[in-house]
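Sample 3 of the quickstart, ligand 5-thio-alpha-D-glucopyranose:
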Amino acid sequence: MMRGGKDAFRPRPEDHFTFGLWTVGNPGRDPFGEPVRPPLSPIVIVRKLAELGAYGVNLHDNDLVPPGASASERDKIVREFKQALADTGMKVPMATTNLFSDPAFRDGAFTSSDSRVRAYALQKTLAAIDLGVELGATTYVCWGGREGETNAAKDPRTALAWYRDAINYLCEYVRSQRYDLRFALEAKPNEPRGDIFLPTTGHMLAFIYTLDHPEMVGVNPELAHERMAGLDFSHAVAQALEAGKLFHIDLNGQQVGRFDQDLRFGSDDPKGAFFLVKLLEDAKWSGMRHFDSHAYRTEDESGVWDFAAGSMRTYLILKDKVARFNADPEIQQLLAELDGGKSSARVPFSELRNTKFDLAALRSRGYAYERLDQLTMELLLGVR
Ligand code: GLT
Ligand code: MN
Ligand code: MN
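Result:
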């Protein structure tokens, strides 16, 4: 539906926008520079995002409970956090584990050469799953941030088998606890180090079908990560959707060939973002629109909230453009004219063998994609 009026692009909880605590809470540290912003407490984040119209927040275990907290400290933090959720109506649909900050994970977590590190990573993840479920999460993201460096150390087949064992173990745990929780595997080609195992969403999809419980595991594609690999994000998301495996999504912006930028959604490639929103909205995908991005390092706290509001607003503007695209008579006419014949996919072999094609016509036809693309651009640029 096209929106109108002055509140047309104001986000509402029904839009299902979520942010990681680590996203708006990002203090702007980079490999060459110290943090530029003070930490924001999870409670401040929840209250402010609720005010801006978000649906919820997602978290790593240590975004909420600092490493080394005692059981009573943990319980106090969780209690106060739950109170903030109750006060604001905010939800925690997704949780994940930090398996990359602690120096113990310097050789990876589920694929570390040291079996004690692999076991510790699982122990940490079980506790983080309990925390996520306690907060209401039904999706659990696994991002193997440091899996995959140094081929001299291990046969990658062995590492992948360890990875598989870990996900199988986690699925077994969730089943044993009767949790209502599904896993979403997140691919990334590189960063923080040079290579990461299972570098794209397509690799993850192939891996899922080798697991003991493939029905419990889907993907969490991230726009920036497919773009870092130079790929078309919508194609990755379409493959996941089509396989019924799009369990979660990380929205942001990224230029090809740069460091892991995690830019505000739609800010660097509005046309790519438009086709992504079109895909999700046309598919009536019911999941969370999660922003895994952060404000420019130049910003103070008010710039962080500008960033958060802008991410949601851009999504809603693009959603409105999708409705306009789908209702545009000229665009729809061009689309309707594309297919000049019936599909040969399911006709009997003998019929297909005997079909005469007008090859001269097929070879010389134009598809009018230039016009279609220009109309799309004019719509996006606001003159249509
Ligand atoms: C980290 C990474 C993200 C992942 C997060 C989940 S952590 O910020 O760059 O893409 O989604 O572990
Ligand atoms: Mn991500
Ligand atoms: Mn990222």
